[in-house]
Amino acid sequence: MNSENFSICEKIVSSSYVRQGSQARRSHEQLIRLLLEQGKCPEEGWSESTVELFLNELAVMDSNNFLGNCGVGEREGRVASSLVARRHYRLIHGIGRSGDIAAVQPKAAGSSLLNKLTNSIVLDILKVAGVRSVSSCFVVPMATGMSLTLCFLTLRHRRPQAPYIIWPRIDQKSCFKAMITAGFEPVVIENVLEGDELRTDLEAVEKKIEELGAENILCVHSTTSCFAPRVPDRLEELAKMCAKHDIPHIVNNAYGIQSSKCMHLIQQGARVGRIDAFVQSLDKNFMVPVGGAIIAGFNESFIQEISRMYPGRASASPSLDVLITLLTLGAGGYKRLLKERKEMYAHLAQELQKLAEAHGERLLHTPHNPISLAMSLSSLQSQSVKAVTQLGSMLFTRQVSGARVVPLGNEQVVSGHTFKGFMSHSEAYPCPYLNAASAIGITQDDVTLCIKRLDKCLKSLRKEASPEPTAGTM
Amino acid sequence: MNSENFSICEKIVSSSYVRQGSQARRSHEQLIRLLLEQGKCPEEGWSESTVELFLNELAVMDSNNFLGNCGVGEREGRVASSLVARRHYRLIHGIGRSGDIAAVQPKAAGSSLLNKLTNSIVLDILKVAGVRSVSSCFVVPMATGMSLTLCFLTLRHRRPQAPYIIWPRIDQKSCFKAMITAGFEPVVIENVLEGDELRTDLEAVEKKIEELGAENILCVHSTTSCFAPRVPDRLEELAKMCAKHDIPHIVNNAYGIQSSKCMHLIQQGARVGRIDAFVQSLDKNFMVPVGGAIIAGFNESFIQEISRMYPGRASASPSLDVLITLLTLGAGGYKRLLKERKEMYAHLAQELQKLAEAHGERLLHTPHNPISLAMSLSSLQSQSVKAVTQLGSMLFTRQVSGARVVPLGNEQVVSGHTFKGFMSHSEAYPCPYLNAASAIGITQDDVTLCIKRLDKCLKSLRKEASPEPTAGTM
Amino acid sequence: MNSENFSICEKIVSSSYVRQGSQARRSHEQLIRLLLEQGKCPEEGWSESTVELFLNELAVMDSNNFLGNCGVGEREGRVASSLVARRHYRLIHGIGRSGDIAAVQPKAAGSSLLNKLTNSIVLDILKVAGVRSVSSCFVVPMATGMSLTLCFLTLRHRRPQAPYIIWPRIDQKSCFKAMITAGFEPVVIENVLEGDELRTDLEAVEKKIEELGAENILCVHSTTSCFAPRVPDRLEELAKMCAKHDIPHIVNNAYGIQSSKCMHLIQQGARVGRIDAFVQSLDKNFMVPVGGAIIAGFNESFIQEISRMYPGRASASPSLDVLITLLTLGAGGYKRLLKERKEMYAHLAQELQKLAEAHGERLLHTPHNPISLAMSLSSLQSQSVKAVTQLGSMLFTRQVSGARVVPLGNEQVVSGHTFKGFMSHSEAYPCPYLNAASAIGITQDDVTLCIKRLDKCLKSLRKEASPEPTAGTM
Amino acid sequence: MNSENFSICEKIVSSSYVRQGSQARRSHEQLIRLLLEQGKCPEEGWSESTVELFLNELAVMDSNNFLGNCGVGEREGRVASSLVARRHYRLIHGIGRSGDIAAVQPKAAGSSLLNKLTNSIVLDILKVAGVRSVSSCFVVPMATGMSLTLCFLTLRHRRPQAPYIIWPRIDQKSCFKAMITAGFEPVVIENVLEGDELRTDLEAVEKKIEELGAENILCVHSTTSCFAPRVPDRLEELAKMCAKHDIPHIVNNAYGIQSSKCMHLIQQGARVGRIDAFVQSLDKNFMVPVGGAIIAGFNESFIQEISRMYPGRASASPSLDVLITLLTLGAGGYKRLLKERKEMYAHLAQELQKLAEAHGERLLHTPHNPISLAMSLSSLQSQSVKAVTQLGSMLFTRQVSGARVVPLGNEQVVSGHTFKGFMSHSEAYPCPYLNAASAIGITQDDVTLCIKRLDKCLKSLRKEASPEPTAGTM
């Protein structure tokens, strides 16, 4: 309420109580003021009541909520269902304009603020998480793959004659398809085995660049976060190579914000070489629903070029989710989550190692991968060829989710390209294995239960328990 | 509750009351059964309680809501904020898989059902709205522009050598940018003036096809819904031409579902010629928040090809919104809204005509445009060149939204292409004008208030009232 | 947001859009200002967004929502469950203080405002509904019966020696128990039969007063709204009698606000005689959940005396419900509901009459009862004694709720008092009957379905259809 | 969804995923089954999704949510505002019937279940908290004071000739008014000073019983939880005395559930003597909004008698709040809160003691009071008479809530009875003091902030800082 209304309230209930109430309101306003002024994620999280107060204030500024509005356009933010209106806090107009997903909408000052502030807060968090020199970013309501596509499409306008993308192999369909969808030809660089780890084959990259000619290469498309035993690409070296050859460099940092190592790689790569944009998932890094990504970079005008490439308005839903989440957690809360994740990684590694030893397997040695772990299934496979895939379906029915079983010898065709040894990032990895990851939000209970159930499954398989129907892998 | 629990309830409260309660539950289940069996929008809308019951049931089937789940993957549907969880009904996993936006997710049977059912219901509604022979469609969490881009990118794989898109001019940035973003060269076909209407120049299209060679043309990109005095493209003729030359044909039907005329054009076009896909906005046709579109077509395998082109998972939020909305409205409720819109169009036309006459202007004669109307501003312009743009900002500050003022002589560069007479779909339209549309959800009050305020503004401008600061057009 | 924050917003998005947003906010504030100033129900209902904005503003003023509060008391408005906090809009402190349910709480300026405003708005609506001279009222979170008890307990302090309450019979348990619970002896005055109607036996009342001595009578306890064929008491005459003998007069107006006739009786009674308080249900008159009542009267100090009699704080939930409802409906919306109810009464009467005739029964002639109707079941009873009660359970299982079947010859002991002919307000009503009422919120569909199902039941009973298990009456 | 619907789902998405979803549903059902069967608070708290699933299931069983219902009664559970419907989970019918607040409603099987289950769970928690032999209880939507009134009114029917209630003094208005409202004469027994503690004067009670005659005494009305330096009444001795003289005994256990000591006193009192009922607040013990109480006892038929005394239906809102809260916390969570409260009591005592010493005051020695503490303000008062009350208002404006300042020499008339030394439970306590309590939900931060601010206030008062306007005490 404004000061006039507070004055009237003083006639209804005791003025000293109203004054205290009005003062209390000011303390919420003060938090909002700081946010607007600084555009940073507050160190301490907001209460739900401040968050909702703020969202309601934003909604009030959108024309669909004007009490005296009359609409004779083709898009007036009308909502047929009150369930729908409510779940979007009556913020209906989405973000952006036909020209630019980051542009301000005349009909929706509130939604426009939401968009600008979210991008600003997210930029702050990218810095907090380790990429201190990032200069610009925006949230886009598409998952990582489609966001990579958008980056590639933007680059096409800069390098219209370049059909190839250099891509150190990572066996995840959507990032491969991101290139195909954009209309480019991925040039797959097989990884090299160093100890248990699969790492970037820098020589092969260099050789391929020379072979194809730098001018024919749209960009190098590297990856940080990935399933062990693959580890993050050697970003520094790739970035230097890109700088040297004047080739753009796009980094798929899908769930890398949660890891200081991945973020450090990007920071370093940009410092010593060239990174044009790095793309990350909202859901995997901020515990929000699937469907948004952040496109970030070190050159504001290039990031703007990408944002202008998105034709038309877009859903504000992912922005709203990440805004609510970051305001509620605060930077402090987010850092706490990162710290817990790291600790749980160590714990998971320890427990997996113990379990591996007990079953005649071993935890693969992949120190460069800060999130994902892999335990060999060699001994299991030696018992029975089917046992490995059987383990996958047993874990599925026992509600262990995310524990990925990788058998040997898979072959898969993705968009016309044949991948031997698919899922293992390598044509012939030495052994089958099982992945488990310590991702943000994981709890002690997750680890304990997973290890317990895994143990049971392995024991039961050893006894050649009655076979279960296969249900597919995740 | 299951039957076992109902039995226990009978020991707590009178069994005849419990039996009635259990019977009442069955009537909700019955509605859900019909939906699942038929995959059609129920004729009569559901109560909010049935809708929420259903969504809760779906959520229970997703692994992030399993009571005994333990997650060791990198994407487990964890949610940090309970505000966020709640507003998505705890459906967190989004839709699709890396391979295909329409694919089923092992971790999320509920979200997968939501996705399949939404697509099925939307298909039903497209038929109800007039495109009876549509065979396949899917909801995509991107607005119309980006969805068109996805269609063009898909076509590239079929016609890798074709750089051109034939495009009868419509002055709306995002559909132009959709082609640019996809990496194609739009070939703009200027419209012809027939009476007051701007219509497709069929001869020019034909000539251009011959000039460029059909094999070099990716597709024809036509438009139905648009601002008067432009009218929907001559779809039948274009579709025939496409069939003749074996050129794909993509239709931008942005807000055309709400008009039986637009839908009839598509139905006819597909019947007599060739339409590969038609794309429409969710928000503009179904009164949901901005950010979703429907890609539909007559050949299931081509539509699937497009859905497989989307790399990675996607936000379920637009699907959820349209599902809630259609279940709540029912097919009957939606048809009622369409009928009311049509009636309000006639009413708006009548009122605008009266107003025009009172101010020495005229309602442009655009019978082929079923949604948008235009009133000349010739007389206003003759008073003062500035008066026309001034009218725009006056309407803005008076909370008349969507009433677009179109002055003469605008020139704008969009992605490198210069449009003379921008906003008017024509290099030199005879007069400046004002647009008003009767879009779905418009009310009698909207019309009354708009006419009243417009009248005041025109009067005040005539008196050469004190100038207002310009605030920009919408 | 306050003006300072709006200024900062102008640096983030265009200032003209922000200014419009800030203006839009003022229009909500303006509605709130009117409410605070006038304390009346707004004529036009508020949008949900204004209602929620207002409730959030109130909540912010309560100490449990102060951002810097520290609590070391025994009652700090802490909430363990966020579901609970949310459903009460974080208004946790309830209403009133130990001394007075209407008192202001230092810890909860917002809840105190809510309480005062609700009482003020409800007073306004009582006037709108017909009791123009009512001077004071308050909402109490107890249903009608317990609220009557509170009135009687208050009167005891004024008339400590008076053990009797004169009570024209109405067969509804809670109002009888209200007297018993308060510790008084109800003196039941049987009704007289006039035509089909059961009306107050004024002579018997007068005689009883003389017999017991006015000084021994705590009060007369009369009733307006009731089931036909009983009709509202003769309030004018009773009020005059009370004035003459200096006996307090409490009116049970349970669901009478919805009927202009009942309200008129109270207004007239107070004008020509004496009415000390009238009590009405919130749920039955305002379509809110069960559990609240309004205690109102014409003498402010007596009503205050009652409110001071309630020991301790009380739930704000019923006040919140009626506040939300009345702000959403507006006085205009409420009057519209009253009008529709009246029309539906005429419709129901007509349909019941037709049905009665078709089945050899008749609609009892009870013109003084404005809400409830009764249809004889004489012909049904003549077929079979059991058929009448069977009809009751048939209607129950067919989901016709509220259609009460009243057989002859019921006898029931309530708190030690034996009522012959219980349910029929009379020791020997001439015929069994069925009640149906046109209460606020009833729809055309309710009437149509009820008549249809009733018709089927009567037909099936006539055919001596296979007997159904009895499930009890409502 | 029922099994039929799950089967249909298997045709839409992979059957193994659906089967897993259906299995997940069963695990929720299983929790509900246990609850229904055992009627006990689950040891481990439920997730919000199970809680809401359960509430939705209950709502579906109420007639107002029947899809085919038609209503022609005067109370059909119609709701005008969807905001209101939603916040009550569409449970509209309240609890109880005219005859009995614990009775089952034919129209509302779901609400009836809610009522029964809540009472059952609350009974379980009373046992868990220490009164192991409690046999019956019910939740009533009235705060403690009015609930005590109801107990006294019920006793009147058993002892119609007894006008007196023996009441060891406790300076809290609502419990005094509870007796006045019920129409009885409180006989105040002053407390005796033992060390710093104010304790029950057992001799004076005994003497008064003999003086008035046991048959003239309605009951003894004792108190457990109270502000220090008063301590809980000597329940064992009072209970024995009541047994000896055959006098009913009602215990005001307002916020005593949270203290094992208070609960132990009741358990012991009932074991060795007589306790007819004990009454406690919902909000103060379970962190729910104000407005509900629990009436409990050791004799089922007497507790039933009280529940039958409540005339009419009642609000289900307090029952719903406590049900949600206890299901969410689980018995384990509740016990954890009790443990934390106890620890925080020790911490608060320690901190207050340090502070007291630093300011020349002392922490009063009140070991029998397990919740509330008192710190002398003698030294402060010696500086200035006004300083003590000034401290109160200073704390209020600094948002320290619940810290009660008790000056000497207050005199107050409550319902005609003059209390000397009001607020201090004694006509002449030796020194003024300040109260602070460690109540359920208190946090380390509450204590830290309170001590810090208190310290500042005391320092500033010592410096005879500029006087502040008094704002009243809490």
From TrEMBL, chains A, B, C, D:
It is found in: Cytoplasm. Pathway: Aminoacyl-tRNA biosynthesis; selenocysteinyl-tRNA(Sec) biosynthesis; selenocysteinyl-tRNA(Sec) from L-seryl-tRNA(Sec) (archaeal/eukaryal route): step 2/2. TRNA binds at residues 271, 398, 463. Pyridoxal 5'-phosphate binds at residue 75. InterPro entries: PyrdxlP-dep_Trfase, PyrdxlP-dep_Trfase_major, Sec-tRNA_Se_transferase, SepSecS/SepCysS. It catalyses: O-phospho-L-seryl-tRNA(Sec) + selenophosphate + H2O = L-selenocysteinyl-tRNA(Sec) + 2 phosphate. The modification N6-(pyridoxal phosphate)lysine is found at residue 284. Belongs to the SepSecS family. Converts O-phosphoseryl-tRNA(Sec) to selenocysteinyl-tRNA(Sec) required for selenoprotein biosynthesis. This is O-phosphoseryl-tRNA(Sec) selenium transferase.
